[in-house]
Every structure is written in structure tokens, then in C-alpha cells.
Amino acid sequence: MTRAVSLAAGSVAVALAVLAMKLVAWWLTGSVALFADALESVVNVAAAAAALVAVHYAAQPADANHPYGHDKAEYFSAVLEGALILVAAFIILHECWQVWQAPRTPELSLIAFAVAATATAVNAAWCAVLFKQGKRLRSPALLADARHLLADVVTSIGVLLGVALALASGLLWLDPLLAALTAVNILFSGARLVRESVGGLMDEALSPQMLARIRATVAAEAEGAIEAHDIRSRQAGRSTFIEFHLVVPGDMRVVEAHAICDRVEAALKAELGSAIITIHVEPDTKAKHSGVLVL
């Protein structure tokens, strides 16, 4: 079992434990805001299960049908998680409207608040683990789970403070209002997650900062060449794909051009980590006098 799969399995266990605690808190108080918080944890369980399946599949080695590997499977999990977040937000808004029309007083329960606070603390701790390991492993599924948990932690803190305020002040409308604000926050979180995941499925280019690092590395390491142009890139889960044309003097021997390519590839992999690099060597008659000029 890979590290990513172990973390994804851990997310399922944590999500189930947090869901149980939040359901207990809601059952003890009857608060619609705590109900909204618990419903988001239902989404967490489904999303964590989907991430587990996706990460397991993505870990499979390349084969004849998938020569570039299965890394993109993680993006499907992230898209599904985003969609589930949106569904949960609409369900919460519906419940808020029902309670707004017929307000009910949540029951004060210190035990419920303690249970809900513990659930939030567990989510926060696991969120930190997923962020750290997701970045290290370059896993879209784990990072998507971490972002969702972060939104859950923020809304849970707001819900706990708001329910306490509603009980202390007697303003019953604060409970559904806070639940509605939780739903809006979830909507933005889900929409952002879907956009980022679809970008990965659509072979979106690397960020301008990453492209600048690639250009700088090529310029520094391609001594003997003239220029590099038509640089293209994309990210597929843990793998970064880079390809470009490298212009060399027309009379350069093949072995010399190959040595330059090897040097550039080694430097890019050291800079970016896991990368699949394709370099097309061209003679100086193909120079475009643009892109990366080699100094």
C-alpha cells in the first residue's frame, strides 16, 4: 500500500469519526447550524471514499492502454468531491429556509458543544496532515480533501460561535442565518474545487511561476545550444509533462546535442521532481529568435 493510499484510507476513518461526533452534537441541540455542519461531514465521508478509490487506481503503474500512467484518475475524485459539496450546500439552504419560516430554539448542551469542538479539532489536525503530505506527494485528490476539510473547519468554528451567541441572546434567527452562511461558504469551496480539477483534466498549462522556473533552468543548462522555443507543459496528478524544441548549431554532432538534452532533462527533474520531458532537436535554420535564448 502506497503512502497516498494509506492517507486516503485514513481520511475515510477520520471522516466517519467526525461525522458521528457531529451527529451527536446536532441530536443533542436540534440546531440547524449544527445540522448543516453534520451534513457537510456526510459529504466528507463520500468524498474521502471516492478519493481512496481514485488514489488506489492512480497508483497503478503505466500499462499498454495507459502508457502515461493513471495519475489523472485523482482529478475525477476531486471533481466528484466538488459536485458533492455543491449538493450539500443546496440541501443546507433548503433546511435553512424551513427553519427560517418556523424558528425553533436549539437546546443548550455543554456536552454537545464539547463533542462538536472535538470533531473540529480532529478535522483541523487531519487537514494539516493532508496539506503537508498532499503537497509532498503532489496528489490532487489528497489536496482536494485537505481544502474541503479546511473549509469545514472554518465553518464549524463559525457555527459553534454563532449557536452559542444565538442561545445567549435569544435571537433564534441567528441559527438558520449562520447555517445559510455556511452553505454559501461551501458553495464557493465546491465551485473552486471543480474549476481546479477540470483544469487538470483539460491539460491546463503550469502556472506562470513554474514556467518561469522551467525557462530559467533551460537557459542556464543548455550551454552549446542557441535557443529553446514552443515550450508546452501540463500537469497530470503527480507527473509534470514538458516538451519544447531545442535549436543547436547545424554542424553539431548528434552525440553533443544529446548530451545537452541529457543535461537539461536532469536539471529540470531536479528542479520539478517527477517530470516527463520531450525535447525535439532542430538545426539553426529552424531558429525563431523567440522563447528561451541560451546564454
What are the key terms here?
single chain, 295 residues, alpha+beta, Alpha-lytic protease prodomain-like, Alpha-Beta Plaits, 2 domains, 4-stranded mixed beta sheet, elongated
Estimate the helix proportion, in percent: 55-70%
CATH topology heading of the largest domain: Alpha-lytic protease prodomain-like
- The residue-averaged pLDDT reads 80
What order do the helices and strands follow?
HHHHHHHEEHEE
Biggest sheet details: 4 strands, mixed
Q: Roughly how many Å is the radius of gyration?
A: 25 Å
Number of helices: 8
Please state the overall shape, judged from the principal axes of the Cα atoms: elongated
Number of domains: 2
Tally of DSSP β-strands: 4
CATH class of the largest domain: Mainly Alpha
Strands side by side in the biggest sheet: 3-2-1-4
User: What would you say the CATH architecture of the largest domain is?
Assistant: Up-down Bundle
- Rounded to the nearest angstrom, the distance between the terminal CA atoms is 46 Å
Strand pairing plus helix content: what structural class?
Answer: alpha+beta
Uncertain residue segments:
none
The proportion of residues in beta strands is 5-15%
CATH H-level superfamily of the largest domain: Cation efflux protein transmembrane domain
Keywords: Membrane, Transmembrane, Transmembrane helix, Transport
Domain Cation efflux protein cytoplasmic: 208-283
Family: Belongs to the cation diffusion facilitator (CDF) transporter (TC 2.A.4) family.
Transmembrane segments: 30-55, 75-93, 108-129, 149-171
